[in-house]
Design a protein that fits this description.
CATH architecture of one domain: Alpha-Beta Barrel
Distance between the termini: 36 Å
Strand order of the largest sheet: 1-2-3-4-5-6-7-8
CATH superfamily of one domain: Aldolase class I
Order of helices and strands: HEHEHEHEHEHEHEHEHEEHHHH
Largest sheet: 8 strands, parallel, barrel
Number of helices: 13
Shape: globular
Bound molecules: flavin mononucleotide
Radius of gyration: 19 Å
CATH class of one domain: Alpha Beta
Helix content: 25-40%
Strand content: 5-15%
């Protein structure tokens, strides 16, 4: 693990070496992933929704904590717009708190109903949004500790406004007093130095670590990501106001065809969009047969390698960006 290069409000909040956070990943953010991020000097968020069975969730948390030798891990609590999908949340929250988890990434709906219990237990809550407007509203109205703003480049849900991380990186820290984490399109250490230079306190990554050895998905899926360029993701489901950035594959194009034909009947989309397709594709390796979240930073995911190597490279690249900037200052020139 590299020595700390940056000290920010995010490294302080989570007591970590590097301000590099690994976000919740549906189906993939399990104990191995979460612990690998923590052991590499960052913070990882285990996706509660991936483990609907309470016993399984509890075991996964215990496994993660044993893999980090008790070092704190984070949990991702995603609140869907469909209430029936949130039924497990309350139980999961209790299990996580009982297991000693105090770091939470919330996403989807504002975590208003979860906050009293989270804060009562002394948790640190990082809420994730995709617009400056939502970030400002959450930072001023909710008892949260930090905010993540993801840009249009991100894998998963980039929101509807599709403003780039380059814009968020300046506007967020300018307008928001609590610590700001920027996510979306980040997969190279030079970007980390730049984003911190623009005022952020940390970065959130997802796509870059989809090729980590600790991610359980089939090697064929990882190979597809390794071979992807910056333009190999695409947007689907904007017509349902639920935009997703995914691998540009057969299923994504089938969904886009339905959207182009202005089909409004969700049942016609269901065979393509149902979540379990992704689980099956991660398992079988058939990456064409699901909507698989992936962002533009896939271009930086060039090899399947251990999480620690990915973190080390990011830190080294950030250090070289700082050196370059130092060298560019006019007083250093002959
Ligand atoms: C495969 C995949 C699955 C994801 N699943 C979730 C999820 O279940 N909950 C969530 O809050 N965010 C999820 N995200 C978003 C990530 O936590 C993170 O915000 C995003 O990946 C950052 O942008 P990047 O992909 O450009 O690095 C997912 C992203 C990917 C790539």
């Amino acid at each position: 693990m590299r020595e700390p290069l940056f000290s920010t409000r995010i490294t302080e909040l989570f007591n970590i070496k590097h301000p590099i956070l690994c976000g919740g990943l549906m189906w993939l953010a399990d104990a191995d992933y979460t612990a690998a991020a923590v052991n590499a000097g960052g913070m990882g968020f285990l996706t509660a929704k991936t483990f609907p069975d309470p016993g399984h969730f509890r075991n996964e948390l215990e496994k993660a904590l044993s893999l980090t030798s008790g070092k704190p891990i984070g949990v991702n609590l995603y609140q869907s717009m469909r209430p029936e999908e949130n039924e497990v949340l309350e139980g999961h929250l209790k299990i996580a708190l009982d297991a000693g988890i105090r770091f939470f990434e919330t996403a989807g709906l504002p975590p208003t109903s979860l906050l009293p219990e989270l804060k009562e237990a002394g948790s640190k809550v990082l809420h994730k949004v995709s617009t400056i407007r939502h970030a400002l509203s959450a930072a001023t109205k909710l008892d949260i500790d930090a905010i993540t703003i993801v840009g249009a480049e991100c894998g998963g849900h980039p929101g509807l406004e599709l403003v780039s991380s380059l814009i968020h990186s300046v506007l967020g820290p300018q307008q928001i007093d609590i610590p700001v984490v920027v996510g979306g399109g980040i997969g190279h250490g030079r970007q980390i130095a730049a984003v911190l230079g623009m005022g952020a306190d940390g970065v959130l990554i997802g796509t870059r670590v989809l090729v980590a050895e600790e991610i359980w998905s089939h090697l064929e899926v990882k190979k597809q990501i390794v071979n992807s360029g910056a333009a190999d993701s695409t947007l689907v489901m904007s017509s349902f106001r639920n935009t997703s950035r995914v691998i540009n594959n057969e299923f994504a194009r089938a969904v886009q065809d339905l959207e182009l034909d202005r089909v409004k009947d969700f049942d016609e989309y269901w065979p393509y969009v149902k979540g379990v397709n992704a689980f099956d594709a991660y398992k079988s390796g058939d990456w064409n047969k699901a909507l698989l979240s992936m962002g533009q930073s896939a271009v930086f995911a060039n090899a399947v390698e251990p999480m620690e190597k990915i973190y080390d490279d990011l830190v080294d690249e950030a250090a070289s960006a700082l050196d370059r900037l130092g060298g560019l200052r006019s007083e250093h020139k002959e």
